[in-house]
Amino acid sequence: MGVPHGIVVLDKPAGITSRDAVDHACKRLKTREIGHCGTLDPLATGVLVLVVGRARRLQELLAKSRKVYGARIRLGATSVTDDAEGPITVREPAPAPPTEELVLAAASRFVGEIEQRPPRYSAVKVDGERLYDLARRGEGIDAPMRKVRVYDLKVTSYRWPDLELTVASAGGTYVRSIARDLGEVLGTGGYLAQLTRTESGGFRLDEATALDALGPQHVLPLENALRHFPRVDIAAAQAGRLANGAAVKVDLPPLALQGDEHLFGWVNGHAVALLTRSGPQRVRSQRLLITVEELEQLANAEFAGGSGGPAPAGGGASYADDERR
User: Fold this and answer.
1) Which end of the chain, N or C, is less surrounded by CB atoms within 10 Å?
2) Residues 79 and 181 in one domain
Protein backbone atom coordinates (compact mmCIF):
# COMPACT_ATOMS: atom_id res chain seq x y z
CA MET A 1 0.00 0.00 0.00
CA GLY A 2 1.35 3.43 -0.94
CA VAL A 3 1.88 6.39 1.38
CA PRO A 4 -1.48 8.06 2.19
CA HIS A 5 -1.90 11.74 1.44
CA GLY A 6 -4.33 13.96 3.31
CA ILE A 7 -5.50 15.23 6.69
CA VAL A 8 -6.09 13.53 10.03
CA VAL A 9 -8.15 15.24 12.72
CA LEU A 10 -6.86 13.78 15.98
CA ASP A 11 -8.22 14.08 19.52
CA LYS A 12 -4.99 14.38 21.51
CA PRO A 13 -5.20 13.02 25.05
CA ALA A 14 -3.53 14.69 28.03
CA GLY A 15 -0.09 13.55 29.14
CA ILE A 16 1.68 13.32 25.79
CA THR A 17 3.41 15.86 23.58
CA SER A 18 2.28 16.69 20.06
CA ARG A 19 5.46 14.98 18.84
CA ASP A 20 4.42 11.84 20.72
CA ALA A 21 1.04 11.98 18.99
CA VAL A 22 2.71 12.29 15.59
CA ASP A 23 5.01 9.33 16.33
CA HIS A 24 2.02 7.22 17.35
CA ALA A 25 0.19 8.21 14.16
CA CYS A 26 3.25 7.24 12.10
CA LYS A 27 3.08 3.73 13.54
CA ARG A 28 -0.67 3.45 13.03
CA LEU A 29 -0.53 4.68 9.42
CA LYS A 30 2.82 3.02 8.60
CA THR A 31 4.48 6.16 7.29
CA ARG A 32 6.99 8.70 8.62
CA GLU A 33 5.59 11.47 6.40
CA ILE A 34 3.40 13.14 9.02
CA GLY A 35 3.51 16.56 10.66
CA HIS A 36 1.14 18.54 12.88
CA CYS A 37 -0.44 21.97 12.43
CA GLY A 38 -0.07 23.62 15.82
CA THR A 39 1.50 22.34 19.04
CA LEU A 40 -0.63 21.23 21.97
CA ASP A 41 1.26 21.05 25.28
CA PRO A 42 1.16 17.77 27.27
CA LEU A 43 -1.45 19.28 29.62
CA ALA A 44 -3.77 20.13 26.71
CA THR A 45 -6.29 17.93 24.95
CA GLY A 46 -8.37 18.24 21.83
CA VAL A 47 -8.02 18.88 18.12
CA LEU A 48 -4.58 18.25 16.63
CA VAL A 49 -4.63 18.40 12.84
CA LEU A 50 -2.06 16.16 11.16
CA VAL A 51 -0.85 16.46 7.57
CA VAL A 52 0.12 13.22 5.85
CA GLY A 53 2.26 12.72 2.76
CA ARG A 54 2.10 15.57 0.24
CA ALA A 55 -0.34 17.43 2.50
CA ARG A 56 2.76 18.43 4.49
CA ARG A 57 3.35 21.06 1.82
CA LEU A 58 0.59 23.06 3.52
CA GLN A 59 1.72 22.43 7.10
CA GLU A 60 3.02 25.95 7.74
CA LEU A 61 -0.07 27.56 6.23
CA LEU A 62 -2.53 25.39 8.17
CA ALA A 63 -0.58 25.93 11.40
CA LYS A 64 -1.48 29.63 11.18
CA SER A 65 -5.20 28.92 10.89
CA ARG A 66 -7.86 29.97 13.41
CA LYS A 67 -8.04 27.91 16.59
CA VAL A 68 -10.62 27.83 19.39
CA TYR A 69 -9.96 26.77 23.00
CA GLY A 70 -11.80 26.15 26.21
CA ALA A 71 -9.53 27.21 29.08
CA ARG A 72 -9.63 27.16 32.87
CA ILE A 73 -7.37 29.61 34.68
CA ARG A 74 -6.47 29.29 38.35
CA LEU A 75 -6.05 32.71 39.97
CA GLY A 76 -4.19 33.47 43.20
CA ALA A 77 -1.01 31.60 42.19
CA THR A 78 1.69 31.50 39.52
CA SER A 79 3.63 28.74 37.77
CA VAL A 80 7.15 28.53 36.39
CA THR A 81 5.72 26.99 33.21
CA ASP A 82 2.58 29.18 33.24
CA ASP A 83 0.47 26.03 33.54
CA ALA A 84 -0.30 23.29 36.05
CA GLU A 85 2.74 21.25 34.93
CA GLY A 86 5.28 23.45 36.69
CA PRO A 87 6.05 24.29 40.32
CA ILE A 88 3.19 26.41 41.70
CA THR A 89 3.71 29.43 43.94
CA VAL A 90 0.63 30.54 45.89
CA ARG A 91 0.39 34.28 46.39
CA GLU A 92 0.92 35.28 50.02
CA PRO A 93 -0.85 37.04 51.52
CA ALA A 94 -3.86 35.74 49.62
CA PRO A 95 -5.16 38.40 47.22
CA ALA A 96 -8.70 39.65 47.48
CA PRO A 97 -10.88 37.99 44.81
CA PRO A 98 -11.61 40.52 42.06
CA THR A 99 -15.23 41.26 41.21
CA GLU A 100 -16.81 39.84 38.07
CA GLU A 101 -16.89 43.35 36.61
CA LEU A 102 -13.13 43.67 37.06
CA VAL A 103 -12.57 40.24 35.53
CA LEU A 104 -14.66 41.08 32.45
CA ALA A 105 -12.90 44.41 32.00
CA ALA A 106 -9.47 42.78 32.28
CA ALA A 107 -10.38 39.99 29.85
CA SER A 108 -11.50 42.51 27.23
CA ARG A 109 -7.94 43.83 27.01
CA PHE A 110 -6.79 40.58 25.40
CA VAL A 111 -8.91 40.83 22.24
CA GLY A 112 -7.49 42.02 18.91
CA GLU A 113 -3.85 42.29 17.91
CA ILE A 114 -1.94 42.14 21.18
CA GLU A 115 1.66 41.98 22.35
CA GLN A 116 2.48 38.67 23.99
CA ARG A 117 5.58 37.11 25.51
CA PRO A 118 5.78 33.32 24.97
CA PRO A 119 6.26 31.17 28.10
CA ARG A 120 9.82 30.36 29.14
CA TYR A 121 8.96 26.70 28.74
CA SER A 122 7.97 26.75 25.05
CA ALA A 123 9.30 25.65 21.67
CA VAL A 124 10.07 29.22 20.60
CA LYS A 125 13.68 29.61 19.50
CA VAL A 126 16.01 32.35 20.72
CA ASP A 127 19.47 32.48 19.13
CA GLY A 128 18.89 29.03 17.65
CA GLU A 129 17.90 27.31 20.91
CA ARG A 130 14.43 26.41 22.13
CA LEU A 131 13.35 28.19 25.28
CA TYR A 132 12.45 24.97 27.10
CA ASP A 133 15.99 23.62 26.56
CA LEU A 134 17.47 26.78 28.05
CA ALA A 135 15.02 26.69 30.96
CA ARG A 136 15.79 23.06 31.77
CA ARG A 137 19.50 23.91 31.95
CA GLY A 138 18.76 26.71 34.39
CA GLU A 139 19.45 29.35 31.74
CA GLY A 140 15.86 30.51 31.32
CA ILE A 141 15.47 33.82 29.52
CA ASP A 142 12.46 35.81 28.44
CA ALA A 143 11.51 35.60 24.79
CA PRO A 144 11.01 38.84 22.88
CA MET A 145 7.47 40.20 22.82
CA ARG A 146 5.59 39.43 19.63
CA LYS A 147 2.25 40.32 18.10
CA VAL A 148 -0.53 37.72 18.06
CA ARG A 149 -4.19 37.96 17.11
CA VAL A 150 -7.06 37.02 19.40
CA TYR A 151 -10.33 37.09 17.50
CA ASP A 152 -12.59 36.58 20.48
CA LEU A 153 -12.30 35.94 24.22
CA LYS A 154 -15.34 35.30 26.40
CA VAL A 155 -15.61 34.63 30.13
CA THR A 156 -17.94 31.64 30.47
CA SER A 157 -17.65 31.07 34.23
CA TYR A 158 -16.04 32.77 37.22
CA ARG A 159 -16.01 31.31 40.71
CA TRP A 160 -12.89 32.25 42.65
CA PRO A 161 -10.20 31.07 42.18
CA ASP A 162 -11.24 29.50 38.85
CA LEU A 163 -11.96 31.46 35.70
CA GLU A 164 -13.17 29.75 32.52
CA LEU A 165 -12.78 31.23 29.05
CA THR A 166 -13.33 30.47 25.41
CA VAL A 167 -10.55 31.85 23.23
CA ALA A 168 -10.50 32.10 19.43
CA SER A 169 -7.09 33.07 18.07
CA ALA A 170 -4.71 32.81 15.16
CA GLY A 171 -1.97 30.20 15.21
CA GLY A 172 1.03 31.03 17.37
CA THR A 173 -1.01 32.41 20.28
CA TYR A 174 -0.16 31.00 23.72
CA VAL A 175 -3.19 30.62 25.97
CA ARG A 176 -0.69 29.99 28.81
CA SER A 177 0.58 33.52 28.28
CA ILE A 178 -2.97 34.90 28.36
CA ALA A 179 -3.54 33.11 31.69
CA ARG A 180 -0.31 34.50 33.14
CA ASP A 181 -0.87 38.05 31.87
CA LEU A 182 -4.54 38.16 32.85
CA GLY A 183 -3.55 37.17 36.38
CA GLU A 184 -1.02 39.99 36.44
CA VAL A 185 -3.59 42.54 35.23
CA LEU A 186 -5.95 41.41 38.01
CA GLY A 187 -3.13 41.60 40.57
CA THR A 188 -3.71 38.00 41.68
CA GLY A 189 -1.33 36.00 39.55
CA GLY A 190 -2.67 33.18 37.41
CA TYR A 191 -1.77 30.06 35.47
CA LEU A 192 -3.44 27.76 32.98
CA ALA A 193 -5.02 24.85 34.83
CA GLN A 194 -6.77 23.13 31.93
CA LEU A 195 -6.96 23.54 28.14
CA THR A 196 -8.97 21.88 25.39
CA ARG A 197 -8.65 22.87 21.74
CA THR A 198 -12.16 22.57 20.36
CA GLU A 199 -11.46 23.71 16.81
CA SER A 200 -8.49 24.07 14.46
CA GLY A 201 -8.63 25.25 10.86
CA GLY A 202 -12.39 24.67 10.79
CA PHE A 203 -12.13 21.10 12.12
CA ARG A 204 -14.14 20.58 15.32
CA LEU A 205 -13.59 18.27 18.27
CA ASP A 206 -16.67 16.22 17.37
CA GLU A 207 -14.94 15.33 14.07
CA ALA A 208 -11.74 14.14 15.75
CA THR A 209 -10.54 10.55 16.07
CA ALA A 210 -9.10 9.04 19.25
CA LEU A 211 -5.41 8.22 18.96
CA ASP A 212 -5.85 4.51 19.68
CA ALA A 213 -8.61 4.19 17.07
CA LEU A 214 -6.63 5.85 14.27
CA GLY A 215 -6.43 3.95 10.97
CA PRO A 216 -5.99 4.62 7.23
CA GLN A 217 -9.74 5.18 6.90
CA HIS A 218 -9.37 8.36 8.97
CA VAL A 219 -7.08 10.08 6.45
CA LEU A 220 -9.32 12.72 4.87
CA PRO A 221 -8.80 14.24 1.42
CA LEU A 222 -6.66 17.38 1.43
CA GLU A 223 -9.66 19.25 0.02
CA ASN A 224 -11.35 18.97 3.43
CA ALA A 225 -8.70 21.24 4.95
CA LEU A 226 -9.17 23.87 2.24
CA ARG A 227 -12.93 24.28 2.49
CA HIS A 228 -12.62 27.71 4.13
CA PHE A 229 -10.15 29.16 1.59
CA PRO A 230 -11.17 30.95 -1.62
CA ARG A 231 -11.40 28.51 -4.52
CA VAL A 232 -10.35 29.23 -8.10
CA ASP A 233 -11.46 26.75 -10.76
CA ILE A 234 -8.81 26.18 -13.44
CA ALA A 235 -9.95 25.08 -16.90
CA ALA A 236 -8.51 21.76 -18.08
CA ALA A 237 -6.99 23.55 -21.06
CA GLN A 238 -4.90 25.65 -18.66
CA ALA A 239 -3.61 22.74 -16.56
CA GLY A 240 -0.38 22.33 -18.52
CA ARG A 241 0.47 26.02 -18.21
CA LEU A 242 -0.25 25.91 -14.48
CA ALA A 243 2.04 22.89 -14.06
CA ASN A 244 4.86 24.77 -15.81
CA GLY A 245 4.50 27.81 -13.55
CA ALA A 246 3.01 30.03 -16.24
CA ALA A 247 0.30 32.58 -15.45
CA VAL A 248 -3.24 31.53 -16.35
CA LYS A 249 -6.40 33.61 -16.70
CA VAL A 250 -9.14 32.94 -14.14
CA ASP A 251 -12.23 34.49 -12.59
CA LEU A 252 -11.13 35.48 -9.09
CA PRO A 253 -13.79 35.21 -6.37
CA PRO A 254 -14.67 38.52 -4.63
CA LEU A 255 -13.00 37.44 -1.37
CA ALA A 256 -9.75 36.83 -3.23
CA LEU A 257 -9.65 40.45 -4.36
CA GLN A 258 -9.22 41.65 -0.76
CA GLY A 259 -5.51 40.96 -0.90
CA ASP A 260 -4.41 38.70 1.95
CA GLU A 261 -6.49 35.59 1.33
CA HIS A 262 -4.68 32.45 0.21
CA LEU A 263 -5.99 31.05 -3.06
CA PHE A 264 -6.18 27.44 -4.16
CA GLY A 265 -6.58 26.22 -7.70
CA TRP A 266 -8.96 23.35 -8.40
CA VAL A 267 -9.19 21.16 -11.49
CA ASN A 268 -12.09 18.77 -11.99
CA GLY A 269 -13.13 18.95 -8.33
CA HIS A 270 -9.66 18.50 -6.82
CA ALA A 271 -7.34 21.01 -5.14
CA VAL A 272 -4.15 21.05 -7.19
CA ALA A 273 -2.10 24.14 -6.28
CA LEU A 274 -1.53 27.00 -3.89
CA LEU A 275 -1.76 30.05 -6.12
CA THR A 276 -0.27 33.51 -6.18
CA ARG A 277 -1.73 36.49 -8.03
CA SER A 278 0.03 37.52 -11.21
CA GLY A 279 -1.91 40.57 -12.35
CA PRO A 280 -5.63 41.30 -12.77
CA GLN A 281 -7.58 38.04 -13.02
CA ARG A 282 -4.38 36.06 -13.51
CA VAL A 283 -2.66 33.56 -11.20
CA ARG A 284 0.28 31.17 -11.24
CA SER A 285 1.22 28.16 -9.14
CA GLN A 286 3.17 28.94 -6.00
CA ARG A 287 3.23 25.28 -4.99
CA LEU A 288 1.70 22.20 -6.60
CA LEU A 289 -0.17 19.92 -4.21
CA ILE A 290 -0.12 16.92 -6.54
CA THR A 291 2.34 15.60 -9.12
CA VAL A 292 2.33 16.92 -12.67
CA GLU A 293 1.23 13.48 -13.84
CA GLU A 294 -1.78 13.54 -11.51
CA LEU A 295 -2.65 17.06 -12.66
CA GLU A 296 -2.63 15.94 -16.30
CA GLN A 297 -4.83 12.94 -15.40
CA LEU A 298 -7.38 15.26 -13.76
CA ALA A 299 -7.35 17.53 -16.80
CA ASN A 300 -7.80 14.58 -19.15
CA ALA A 301 -10.70 13.32 -17.03
CA GLU A 302 -12.38 16.73 -17.31
CA PHE A 303 -11.89 16.74 -21.07
CA ALA A 304 -13.25 13.21 -21.30
CA GLY A 305 -16.37 14.34 -19.48
CA GLY A 306 -16.71 17.32 -21.76
CA SER A 307 -15.26 17.50 -25.26
CA GLY A 308 -13.88 13.99 -25.13
CA GLY A 309 -10.45 15.04 -26.36
CA PRO A 310 -7.17 14.87 -24.45
CA ALA A 311 -5.88 17.78 -22.45
CA PRO A 312 -3.17 19.88 -24.06
CA ALA A 313 0.34 18.58 -23.41
CA GLY A 314 2.08 19.79 -20.30
CA GLY A 315 4.86 21.42 -22.29
CA GLY A 316 7.63 19.21 -20.92
CA ALA A 317 6.77 19.48 -17.22
CA SER A 318 8.16 16.63 -15.15
CA TYR A 319 7.87 15.25 -11.64
CA ALA A 320 11.21 16.91 -10.92
CA ASP A 321 9.68 20.26 -11.86
CA ASP A 322 6.90 19.55 -9.39
CA GLU A 323 9.30 18.79 -6.56
CA ARG A 324 11.07 22.11 -7.04
CA ARG A 325 7.87 24.11 -6.46
Assistant:
1) N
2) yes
